[in-house]
Design brief:
Number of domains: 2
Mean pLDDT: 88
Strand order of the largest sheet: 1-2
Shape: extended
Bound molecules: zinc ion
Radius of gyration: 22 Å
Low-confidence stretches: none
Order of helices and strands: HHEHEHH
Structural class: mainly alpha
Number of strands: 2
Number of helices: 5
């Protein structure tokens, strides 16, 4: 089979699959990877927004972002792939940060609080998460004890 015929078959298959997914196969792959990442983040209890600190409930609100803008880094490629520069956030929190004007440090008081929290989270994220997990477990135990007491 010649190359042109092979390409034609591949294009045909690609077209069929794109119609099946209702999006390009590349977009479907990205969507799957994002779902896997979100699922793993939840299992590791890392599904909390780096910007506002709240839980990311649905994969549609889940975004991966660079804490320090890679485009203006001294080495953009290194900054882009640096896993220590990666955080999870709500899509809306991520977009809001991207819209913020470069002159203004914070858009408003809410934004300032959010940024201060994210600075705190960067340093103490693990301890903060551990406390949250402990608090949740405490509440669960308390609830169980209360429901047992009623019997
Ligand atoms: Zn958020």
């Amino acid at each position: 089979m010649n190359l042109a015929a092979q390409i034609s078959i591949m294009n045909e298959r690609h077209k069929r699959e794109s119609e099946l997914f209702g999006m390009s196969v590349g977009a479907a792959n990205n969507k799957l990877r994002k779902q896997i990442m979100f699922d793993l983040a939840k299992r590791l209890n890392l599904h909390f927004c780096y910007r506002c600190g709240h839980e990311i409930v649905h994969v549609d609100q889940f975004s991966v972002e660079h804490m320090n803008a890679w485009r203006i880094a001294s080495d953009p490629v290194v900054a882009f792939f640096d896993l220590n520069n990666i955080a999870f956030s709500h899509l809306r929190c991520n977009s809001a940060a991207a819209r913020r004007s470069p002159q203004k440090k914070y858009a408003d008081a809410k934004e300032r609080k959010r940024v201060q929290f994210q600075r705190y989270y960067k340093k103490n994220g693990r301890a903060w998460n551990d406390r949250r997990i402990a608090r949740r477990k405490e509440l669960k135990d308390l609830k169980e004890r209360n429901s047992n007491g009623l019997e």
